[in-house]
Amino acid sequence: MNKVICLFVLLLLVACSDSENAPYYADNIKTFVFADDISVGDSVIYLKNDSVDIVEPIDHYALYKNKVEDDSNWTLIYHADARALAIHVMLEISPNSDGGGFLLQCGSRKDFSISFDHPEFPIKEKGYMLDLVDSFKVAGVLYRDVLVFDGTRADPNKCDMARFYYAANYGLIKVVSKNGIELSRSSKSSN
Amino acid sequence: MIRTLVKNNLIACGLFVGAFVGCGDVFSDLCIPDIDPLCDFQKKFGGYDYGDTLHFSHSNGYTFDLAVVKDDVSYRTDDGGLYNREKDIPCNENGPTTAVRLRSVRLEAVFPMLSIDLEMDGDNRWSQSIEVYMGQYRFSLNRSDFEEKSSEKSRLVDSVEVNGHVYRNVAVVEGVRHTEKQYAYDGVQGVKKNDAPSSAKMYYLEKKGIIKIELEDGSFIALKENLK
Hints:
Helix content of chain B: 10-25%
Helix content of chain A: 10-25%
Shape of chain B: globular
Number of helices of chain B: 2
Largest sheet of chain B: 10 strands, antiparallel, barrel
Radius of gyration of chain A: 20 Å
Strand content of chain A: 35-45%
Distance between the termini of chain B: 85 Å
Strand order of the largest sheet of chain A: 6-5-4-3-2-1-12-11-10-9-8-7
Strand order of the largest sheet of chain B: 2-3-5-6-7-8-10-11-12-13
Shape of chain A: globular
Order of helices and strands of chain A: HHEEEEEEEEEEEE
Structural class of chain B: alpha+beta
Number of helices of chain A: 2
Oligomer: heterodimer
Number of strands of chain B: 13
Order of helices and strands of chain B: HEHEEEEEEEEEEEE
Radius of gyration of chain B: 26 Å
Largest sheet of chain A: 12 strands, antiparallel
Protein backbone atom coordinates (compact mmCIF):
# COMPACT_ATOMS: atom_id res chain seq x y z
CA MET A 1 0.00 0.00 0.00
CA ASN A 2 2.82 2.35 0.94
CA LYS A 3 4.49 1.66 -2.41
CA VAL A 4 1.31 2.62 -4.24
CA ILE A 5 1.07 5.88 -2.31
CA CYS A 6 4.73 6.66 -2.98
CA LEU A 7 4.27 5.98 -6.68
CA PHE A 8 1.21 8.24 -6.76
CA VAL A 9 3.07 11.06 -5.00
CA LEU A 10 6.00 10.64 -7.37
CA LEU A 11 3.74 10.82 -10.43
CA LEU A 12 2.06 13.91 -8.99
CA LEU A 13 5.43 15.59 -8.47
CA VAL A 14 6.54 14.78 -12.00
CA ALA A 15 3.27 16.12 -13.39
CA CYS A 16 3.60 19.32 -11.36
CA SER A 17 7.21 19.89 -12.37
CA ASP A 18 6.28 19.35 -16.04
CA SER A 19 3.59 22.01 -15.89
CA GLU A 20 5.98 24.44 -14.19
CA ASN A 21 8.57 24.02 -16.92
CA ALA A 22 6.19 24.11 -19.85
CA PRO A 23 6.58 27.30 -21.86
CA TYR A 24 3.56 29.58 -21.74
CA TYR A 25 2.51 33.22 -22.09
CA ALA A 26 1.41 35.35 -19.15
CA ASP A 27 -1.94 37.05 -19.75
CA ASN A 28 -0.43 40.52 -20.26
CA ILE A 29 1.84 39.22 -23.03
CA LYS A 30 -0.75 37.14 -24.86
CA THR A 31 -2.21 40.25 -26.41
CA PHE A 32 1.04 40.83 -28.33
CA VAL A 33 1.12 37.36 -29.81
CA PHE A 34 -2.52 36.36 -30.27
CA ALA A 35 -3.81 39.37 -32.14
CA ASP A 36 -6.93 38.93 -34.23
CA ASP A 37 -5.68 41.31 -36.84
CA ILE A 38 -1.96 41.86 -37.19
CA SER A 39 -2.07 45.12 -39.09
CA VAL A 40 1.72 45.21 -39.25
CA GLY A 41 1.08 43.24 -42.42
CA ASP A 42 1.12 46.65 -44.13
CA SER A 43 4.69 46.78 -45.22
CA VAL A 44 5.43 50.53 -45.03
CA ILE A 45 4.75 52.94 -42.19
CA TYR A 46 6.02 56.49 -41.67
CA LEU A 47 7.69 58.11 -38.69
CA LYS A 48 7.74 61.89 -38.81
CA ASN A 49 8.61 65.05 -36.97
CA ASP A 50 7.11 68.18 -38.46
CA SER A 51 9.32 70.65 -36.60
CA VAL A 52 12.54 69.28 -38.11
CA ASP A 53 10.91 68.23 -41.38
CA ILE A 54 11.66 64.52 -41.24
CA VAL A 55 9.40 61.90 -42.77
CA GLU A 56 11.06 58.51 -42.75
CA PRO A 57 9.58 55.41 -44.40
CA ILE A 58 9.96 52.27 -42.31
CA ASP A 59 9.57 48.81 -43.82
CA HIS A 60 8.16 46.46 -41.23
CA TYR A 61 6.62 43.02 -40.98
CA ALA A 62 5.66 40.41 -38.43
CA LEU A 63 5.53 36.68 -38.72
CA TYR A 64 4.80 33.67 -36.56
CA LYS A 65 7.17 30.80 -36.08
CA ASN A 66 6.37 27.30 -34.87
CA LYS A 67 2.70 27.81 -35.61
CA VAL A 68 1.40 24.47 -34.45
CA GLU A 69 -1.80 23.22 -32.85
CA ASP A 70 -0.54 24.08 -29.38
CA ASP A 71 -0.97 27.84 -29.36
CA SER A 72 1.46 28.27 -26.49
CA ASN A 73 4.33 27.57 -28.85
CA TRP A 74 3.73 30.54 -31.12
CA THR A 75 6.61 32.95 -31.42
CA LEU A 76 6.12 36.41 -32.88
CA ILE A 77 8.99 37.97 -34.79
CA TYR A 78 8.77 41.64 -35.73
CA HIS A 79 11.21 43.57 -37.92
CA ALA A 80 11.30 47.32 -38.61
CA ASP A 81 13.96 48.93 -40.81
CA ALA A 82 14.19 52.57 -41.81
CA ARG A 83 15.21 53.31 -45.38
CA ALA A 84 18.02 55.73 -44.48
CA LEU A 85 17.95 56.45 -40.78
CA ALA A 86 19.50 54.26 -38.11
CA ILE A 87 16.20 52.82 -36.93
CA HIS A 88 16.47 49.05 -36.98
CA VAL A 89 14.53 46.83 -34.62
CA MET A 90 13.94 43.10 -34.33
CA LEU A 91 11.61 42.07 -31.53
CA GLU A 92 10.97 38.40 -30.84
CA ILE A 93 8.34 37.38 -28.32
CA SER A 94 8.37 33.73 -27.33
CA PRO A 95 6.89 31.60 -24.55
CA ASN A 96 9.01 30.41 -21.66
CA SER A 97 8.56 28.86 -18.24
CA ASP A 98 8.28 32.34 -16.67
CA GLY A 99 5.40 33.47 -18.86
CA GLY A 100 7.17 34.80 -21.93
CA GLY A 101 10.43 36.40 -22.99
CA PHE A 102 11.59 39.15 -25.30
CA LEU A 103 14.66 39.19 -27.51
CA LEU A 104 15.58 42.58 -28.94
CA GLN A 105 18.08 43.29 -31.68
CA CYS A 106 18.98 46.85 -32.57
CA GLY A 107 21.88 48.96 -33.81
CA SER A 108 22.60 50.01 -37.36
CA ARG A 109 22.90 46.41 -38.55
CA LYS A 110 20.94 44.75 -35.74
CA ASP A 111 24.29 43.66 -34.36
CA PHE A 112 23.34 44.18 -30.72
CA SER A 113 21.08 41.73 -28.88
CA ILE A 114 19.54 41.79 -25.44
CA SER A 115 17.08 39.42 -23.78
CA PHE A 116 14.35 40.24 -21.28
CA ASP A 117 13.37 36.85 -19.92
CA HIS A 118 11.13 37.47 -16.92
CA PRO A 119 7.94 39.37 -17.78
CA GLU A 120 7.62 41.34 -14.55
CA PHE A 121 7.49 44.88 -15.82
CA PRO A 122 9.50 47.01 -15.88
CA ILE A 123 12.19 44.50 -16.85
CA LYS A 124 15.73 45.81 -16.35
CA GLU A 125 18.72 44.23 -18.02
CA LYS A 126 22.25 45.66 -18.20
CA GLY A 127 20.99 49.23 -18.01
CA TYR A 128 18.28 48.69 -20.64
CA MET A 129 14.64 48.65 -19.65
CA LEU A 130 11.47 47.22 -21.15
CA ASP A 131 8.16 48.37 -19.73
CA LEU A 132 4.53 47.71 -20.56
CA VAL A 133 1.86 50.40 -20.45
CA ASP A 134 -1.86 49.91 -20.93
CA SER A 135 -2.21 52.77 -23.38
CA PHE A 136 -0.13 55.46 -25.01
CA LYS A 137 -1.11 58.37 -27.23
CA VAL A 138 0.91 59.22 -30.34
CA ALA A 139 -0.05 62.01 -32.75
CA GLY A 140 -3.61 62.01 -31.43
CA VAL A 141 -4.08 58.25 -31.74
CA LEU A 142 -4.52 56.14 -28.61
CA TYR A 143 -2.80 52.77 -28.78
CA ARG A 144 -3.51 49.93 -26.33
CA ASP A 145 -0.87 47.59 -24.88
CA VAL A 146 2.38 49.33 -25.62
CA LEU A 147 5.91 48.07 -24.95
CA VAL A 148 8.38 50.83 -24.09
CA PHE A 149 12.09 50.23 -24.63
CA ASP A 150 14.44 52.62 -22.84
CA GLY A 151 18.20 52.60 -23.43
CA THR A 152 19.01 55.93 -21.81
CA ARG A 153 20.58 54.36 -18.70
CA ALA A 154 22.81 51.95 -20.58
CA ASP A 155 26.40 53.10 -20.94
CA PRO A 156 27.09 52.88 -23.77
CA ASN A 157 23.63 52.59 -25.32
CA LYS A 158 24.34 50.23 -28.21
CA CYS A 159 20.96 50.85 -29.81
CA ASP A 160 20.94 53.89 -32.06
CA MET A 161 17.93 55.35 -30.27
CA ALA A 162 17.08 56.44 -26.75
CA ARG A 163 13.59 54.95 -26.66
CA PHE A 164 11.06 53.26 -28.89
CA TYR A 165 7.42 52.36 -28.44
CA TYR A 166 5.83 49.21 -29.87
CA ALA A 167 2.06 48.77 -29.88
CA ALA A 168 0.38 45.37 -30.08
CA ASN A 169 -1.10 44.87 -33.56
CA TYR A 170 0.54 48.03 -34.92
CA GLY A 171 4.29 47.71 -34.45
CA LEU A 172 6.55 50.72 -34.05
CA ILE A 173 4.60 53.86 -33.12
CA LYS A 174 7.29 56.20 -31.82
CA VAL A 175 11.09 56.57 -31.69
CA VAL A 176 13.11 59.05 -29.64
CA SER A 177 16.65 59.89 -30.75
CA LYS A 178 19.55 60.06 -28.30
CA ASN A 179 19.24 63.85 -28.22
CA GLY A 180 15.51 63.80 -27.63
CA ILE A 181 14.04 64.32 -31.11
CA GLU A 182 10.74 62.44 -31.35
CA LEU A 183 9.56 60.68 -34.49
CA SER A 184 5.90 59.67 -34.34
CA ARG A 185 3.84 57.24 -36.38
CA SER A 186 1.94 58.90 -39.17
CA SER A 187 -0.67 57.38 -41.41
CA LYS A 188 0.67 59.10 -44.50
CA SER A 189 3.95 60.27 -45.93
CA SER A 190 3.00 63.86 -46.71
CA ASN A 191 3.40 66.67 -44.20
CA MET B 1 77.56 21.55 0.88
CA ILE B 2 74.29 23.46 1.00
CA ARG B 3 75.79 26.31 -1.04
CA THR B 4 76.93 23.85 -3.72
CA LEU B 5 73.50 22.28 -3.82
CA VAL B 6 71.78 25.67 -4.20
CA LYS B 7 74.28 26.71 -6.86
CA ASN B 8 73.77 23.51 -8.86
CA ASN B 9 70.03 23.91 -8.63
CA LEU B 10 70.24 27.50 -9.86
CA ILE B 11 72.40 26.44 -12.82
CA ALA B 12 69.94 23.66 -13.64
CA CYS B 13 67.05 26.07 -13.45
CA GLY B 14 68.90 28.56 -15.62
CA LEU B 15 69.60 25.91 -18.25
CA PHE B 16 65.99 24.81 -18.13
CA VAL B 17 64.65 28.36 -18.49
CA GLY B 18 67.18 29.08 -21.24
CA ALA B 19 66.13 25.99 -23.16
CA PHE B 20 62.50 26.94 -22.70
CA VAL B 21 63.07 30.48 -23.95
CA GLY B 22 65.08 29.11 -26.88
CA CYS B 23 62.27 26.78 -27.83
CA GLY B 24 59.90 29.66 -27.36
CA ASP B 25 61.71 31.66 -30.01
CA VAL B 26 61.39 28.86 -32.54
CA PHE B 27 57.79 28.38 -31.56
CA SER B 28 57.01 32.10 -31.73
CA ASP B 29 58.39 32.23 -35.28
CA LEU B 30 55.72 29.74 -36.22
CA CYS B 31 53.25 31.92 -34.37
CA ILE B 32 53.83 35.04 -36.46
CA PRO B 33 50.67 35.11 -38.53
CA ASP B 34 50.71 35.69 -42.26
CA ILE B 35 48.29 38.62 -42.59
CA ASP B 36 46.75 40.12 -45.71
CA PRO B 37 47.02 43.86 -45.02
CA LEU B 38 44.58 46.57 -45.97
CA CYS B 39 45.45 48.44 -49.16
CA ASP B 40 46.15 52.20 -49.14
CA PHE B 41 42.66 52.91 -50.53
CA GLN B 42 41.18 51.27 -47.44
CA LYS B 43 43.66 52.68 -44.94
CA LYS B 44 43.52 56.28 -46.10
CA PHE B 45 39.91 56.61 -47.27
CA GLY B 46 38.53 59.97 -46.23
CA GLY B 47 41.29 60.46 -43.69
CA TYR B 48 38.71 59.42 -41.12
CA ASP B 49 40.16 59.17 -37.61
CA TYR B 50 38.38 58.27 -34.41
CA GLY B 51 36.97 61.43 -32.81
CA ASP B 52 36.82 63.48 -36.02
CA THR B 53 33.71 65.53 -36.71
CA LEU B 54 32.45 66.20 -40.24
CA HIS B 55 29.88 68.81 -41.15
CA PHE B 56 27.08 67.81 -43.51
CA SER B 57 23.94 69.42 -44.87
CA HIS B 58 20.59 67.76 -45.57
CA SER B 59 18.43 68.52 -48.60
CA ASN B 60 15.66 69.48 -46.16
CA GLY B 61 17.72 72.54 -45.30
CA TYR B 62 19.40 71.77 -42.01
CA THR B 63 23.04 71.02 -41.19
CA PHE B 64 24.33 68.34 -38.86
CA ASP B 65 27.54 66.74 -37.66
CA LEU B 66 28.74 63.24 -38.42
CA ALA B 67 31.23 62.01 -35.83
CA VAL B 68 33.72 59.19 -36.34
CA VAL B 69 32.62 57.10 -33.36
CA LYS B 70 34.48 53.92 -34.29
CA ASP B 71 37.68 53.04 -36.12
CA ASP B 72 38.47 49.43 -35.20
CA VAL B 73 40.94 46.98 -36.68
CA SER B 74 40.41 43.24 -36.24
CA TYR B 75 41.62 40.00 -37.80
CA ARG B 76 39.82 37.08 -39.41
CA THR B 77 41.55 33.73 -39.74
CA ASP B 78 40.88 31.14 -42.44
CA ASP B 79 38.61 29.17 -40.13
CA GLY B 80 36.43 32.24 -39.60
CA GLY B 81 37.79 33.14 -36.17
CA LEU B 82 37.70 36.86 -35.30
CA TYR B 83 40.35 38.51 -33.12
CA ASN B 84 40.67 42.08 -31.94
CA ARG B 85 44.46 42.00 -31.63
CA GLU B 86 47.11 40.44 -33.85
CA LYS B 87 48.76 38.83 -30.82
CA ASP B 88 45.53 37.00 -30.00
CA ILE B 89 45.62 35.03 -33.26
CA PRO B 90 46.31 31.42 -32.19
CA CYS B 91 49.38 29.52 -33.38
CA ASN B 92 49.23 26.92 -36.08
CA GLU B 93 51.29 23.74 -35.55
CA ASN B 94 51.95 23.37 -39.28
CA GLY B 95 53.17 26.89 -39.97
CA PRO B 96 52.02 30.49 -39.76
CA THR B 97 48.31 31.11 -39.34
CA THR B 98 46.91 33.00 -42.29
CA ALA B 99 44.58 35.87 -41.54
CA VAL B 100 43.22 39.06 -43.09
CA ARG B 101 43.12 42.49 -41.49
CA LEU B 102 39.68 44.11 -41.21
CA ARG B 103 38.82 47.72 -40.53
CA SER B 104 35.46 49.02 -39.42
CA VAL B 105 34.67 52.74 -39.34
CA ARG B 106 31.39 54.24 -38.19
CA LEU B 107 30.17 57.77 -38.84
CA GLU B 108 27.24 58.67 -36.65
CA ALA B 109 24.85 61.58 -36.28
CA VAL B 110 22.66 61.55 -33.18
CA PHE B 111 20.36 63.75 -35.21
CA PRO B 112 19.02 62.95 -37.79
CA MET B 113 19.80 59.44 -36.46
CA LEU B 114 22.17 58.53 -39.26
CA SER B 115 24.71 55.77 -39.03
CA ILE B 116 27.17 55.08 -41.83
CA ASP B 117 29.33 51.96 -41.53
CA LEU B 118 32.44 51.48 -43.67
CA GLU B 119 33.65 47.88 -43.73
CA MET B 120 37.06 47.02 -45.18
CA ASP B 121 38.51 43.56 -45.75
CA GLY B 122 42.20 42.99 -46.50
CA ASP B 123 41.65 39.69 -48.30
CA ASN B 124 43.80 40.22 -51.40
CA ARG B 125 42.38 37.27 -53.35
CA TRP B 126 39.74 39.70 -54.50
CA SER B 127 39.53 43.39 -55.19
CA GLN B 128 39.92 45.21 -51.87
CA SER B 129 36.81 47.31 -51.67
CA ILE B 130 35.04 49.40 -49.04
CA GLU B 131 31.47 48.41 -48.30
CA VAL B 132 29.41 51.36 -47.07
CA TYR B 133 26.14 50.71 -45.24
CA MET B 134 23.52 53.35 -44.49
CA GLY B 135 20.00 52.29 -43.51
CA GLN B 136 18.88 49.76 -46.11
CA TYR B 137 21.45 50.96 -48.65
CA ARG B 138 24.86 49.53 -49.45
CA PHE B 139 27.52 51.06 -51.70
CA SER B 140 30.56 49.15 -52.86
CA LEU B 141 33.58 51.44 -53.38
CA ASN B 142 36.63 50.37 -55.31
CA ARG B 143 39.87 52.07 -56.33
CA SER B 144 39.00 51.23 -59.94
CA ASP B 145 35.97 53.55 -59.73
CA PHE B 146 38.45 56.30 -60.65
CA GLU B 147 39.22 54.64 -63.97
CA GLU B 148 37.02 55.40 -66.98
CA LYS B 149 34.27 52.82 -67.61
CA SER B 150 35.60 50.39 -65.01
CA SER B 151 32.15 49.20 -64.04
CA GLU B 152 28.50 49.52 -65.01
CA LYS B 153 27.76 50.59 -61.45
CA SER B 154 30.26 53.45 -61.30
CA ARG B 155 31.35 56.44 -63.32
CA LEU B 156 33.88 59.20 -63.07
CA VAL B 157 32.68 62.81 -63.32
CA ASP B 158 34.98 65.74 -64.07
CA SER B 159 33.60 68.00 -61.39
CA VAL B 160 30.82 68.25 -58.84
CA GLU B 161 29.82 71.32 -56.87
CA VAL B 162 28.72 70.57 -53.32
CA ASN B 163 27.95 73.32 -50.80
CA GLY B 164 30.08 75.87 -52.64
CA HIS B 165 33.05 73.56 -53.16
CA VAL B 166 34.01 72.22 -56.56
CA TYR B 167 35.45 68.71 -56.41
CA ARG B 168 37.36 67.30 -59.39
CA ASN B 169 37.43 63.72 -60.69
CA VAL B 170 34.70 62.42 -58.44
CA ALA B 171 33.65 58.77 -58.45
CA VAL B 172 29.90 58.09 -58.44
CA VAL B 173 28.66 54.64 -57.52
CA GLU B 174 25.15 53.26 -57.58
CA GLY B 175 23.88 51.48 -54.51
CA VAL B 176 21.81 48.43 -53.76
CA ARG B 177 18.92 48.31 -51.34
CA HIS B 178 18.31 45.43 -48.98
CA THR B 179 14.66 44.56 -48.52
CA GLU B 180 12.81 41.92 -46.55
CA LYS B 181 9.23 40.92 -47.26
CA GLN B 182 7.05 38.63 -45.23
CA TYR B 183 5.04 36.04 -47.19
CA ALA B 184 2.59 33.30 -46.41
CA TYR B 185 2.24 30.28 -48.63
CA ASP B 186 0.06 27.29 -47.87
CA GLY B 187 -0.16 28.24 -44.20
CA VAL B 188 3.59 28.63 -43.82
CA GLN B 189 5.12 32.02 -43.16
CA GLY B 190 8.54 33.08 -44.29
CA VAL B 191 10.71 36.04 -45.23
CA LYS B 192 12.03 36.83 -48.66
CA LYS B 193 15.28 38.81 -48.56
CA ASN B 194 16.54 40.69 -51.57
CA ASP B 195 19.37 43.03 -52.56
CA ALA B 196 18.07 45.01 -55.52
CA PRO B 197 19.80 47.68 -57.62
CA SER B 198 18.87 51.14 -56.42
CA SER B 199 18.89 54.62 -57.90
CA ALA B 200 20.69 55.79 -54.75
CA LYS B 201 24.15 57.18 -55.47
CA MET B 202 27.28 57.96 -53.54
CA TYR B 203 29.76 60.61 -54.66
CA TYR B 204 33.21 60.23 -53.20
CA LEU B 205 36.92 60.98 -53.41
CA GLU B 206 39.64 58.82 -51.97
CA LYS B 207 41.11 61.70 -49.98
CA LYS B 208 37.89 63.50 -48.97
CA GLY B 209 35.81 60.37 -48.45
CA ILE B 210 32.04 60.68 -48.80
CA ILE B 211 31.01 63.91 -50.52
CA LYS B 212 27.36 63.26 -51.16
CA ILE B 213 24.75 60.52 -50.83
CA GLU B 214 21.57 60.75 -52.90
CA LEU B 215 18.67 58.49 -51.95
CA GLU B 216 15.87 57.00 -54.05
CA ASP B 217 13.36 59.66 -52.99
CA GLY B 218 15.63 62.49 -54.16
CA SER B 219 16.73 63.56 -50.70
CA PHE B 220 20.46 63.81 -50.06
CA ILE B 221 23.15 64.58 -47.54
CA ALA B 222 26.27 66.48 -48.61
CA LEU B 223 29.65 67.33 -47.11
CA LYS B 224 29.84 70.92 -45.92
CA GLU B 225 33.46 72.00 -45.77
CA ASN B 226 34.46 75.41 -44.52
CA LEU B 227 34.74 77.79 -47.45
CA LYS B 228 38.17 79.37 -47.79
